[in-house]
Structure to design on (225 residues):
């Protein structure tokens, strides 16, 4: 199975700054079949991005995704207090579909 | 707007079987293209895909859990279910039902905490 490693584990930033989150796969993720989720405390994960760089419905353009192959990045521009959450990547290139361990963003 | 709601026991004894249900509202469970899924979240090890089912009844399971898991669907009641046997403390987690759409999980239930303890 594809193992996804996210870094850093925790990111502490100030409002207005940019957050850069990394997701590295143990083998190639074909077709850029990678998604990002945001999970706020006490809530279910929420889909942010799919196909590595396509925002899900209603997601502000402060969120952007990039990458291919084994290295993917989620960027959050102009951080807002509401962006405080854990962010997970997920690959759906190979079965079983797997998730990364998450990056905690603190603001 | 599709909504999912899990239900089931919060406490299961070791070696017993877990049964959870997910009710789908605001949309048809028989809509083509969607797979109805179960995912769990361990406090320590994160998110784990358990399996999913199509409205036709076709199922797909995580190989690591396949021997213990059964997912079924009742389209007439707009619900699908998870059955997991031989529960141990390692199965203590939040269990989510979710809609799988082209590989991503775009709608989630609120989750239900399941604790395995005697």
């Amino acid at each position: 199975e594809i193992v996804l490693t996210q870094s850093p584990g925790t990111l502490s930033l100030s409002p207005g700054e940019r957050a850069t989150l990394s997701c590295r796969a143990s083998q190639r993720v074909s077709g850029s079949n990678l998604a990002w989720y945001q999970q706020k405390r006490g809530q279910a994960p929420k889909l942010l991005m799919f196909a590595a760089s396509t925002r899900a419905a209603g997601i502000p353009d402060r969120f952007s995704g990039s990458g291919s192959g084994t290295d993917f990045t989620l960027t959050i521009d102009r951080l807002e207090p509401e962006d405080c959450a854990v962010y997970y990547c997920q690959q759906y290139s190979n079965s079983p579909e797997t998730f990364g361990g998450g990056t905690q963003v603190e603001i | 707007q599709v909504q999912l709601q899990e239900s089931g026991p919060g406490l299961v004894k070791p070696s017993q079987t877990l049964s959870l249900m997910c009710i789908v509202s605001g949309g048809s469970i028989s809509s083509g293209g969607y797979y109805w899924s179960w995912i769990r979240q361990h406090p320590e090890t994160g998110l784990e895909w358990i399996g999913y089912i199509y409205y036709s009844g076709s199922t797909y399971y995580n190989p690591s859990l396949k021997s213990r898991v059964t997912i079924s669907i009742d389209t007439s009641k707009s619900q699908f279910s998870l059955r997991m046997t031989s529960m141990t403390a390692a199965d203590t987690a939040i269990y989510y039902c979710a809609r799988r759409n082209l590989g991503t999980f775009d709608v989630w239930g609120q989750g239900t905490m399941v604790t395995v303890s005697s």
Q: What stands out?
A: The mean pLDDT of chain B is 96. The interface with chain A takes residues 46-49, 60, 62-64, 96, 98, 102-106, 108-111 of chain B (CB under 8 Å). The first strand of chain B starts at residue 3 and ends at 7. Chain B has no helices and eleven strands.
